[in-house]
Amino acid sequence: MTARVVTLDLDGVADKAGLMDRCVRDLRLPDWFGRNWDALADVLSDPGLWSGDGSEDAGEEETVVVVRNWDRYAGARPDEWATAREVFSQASALTVALALGGSS
Question: What is the mean pLDDT of the chain?
Answer without folding.
Answer: 89
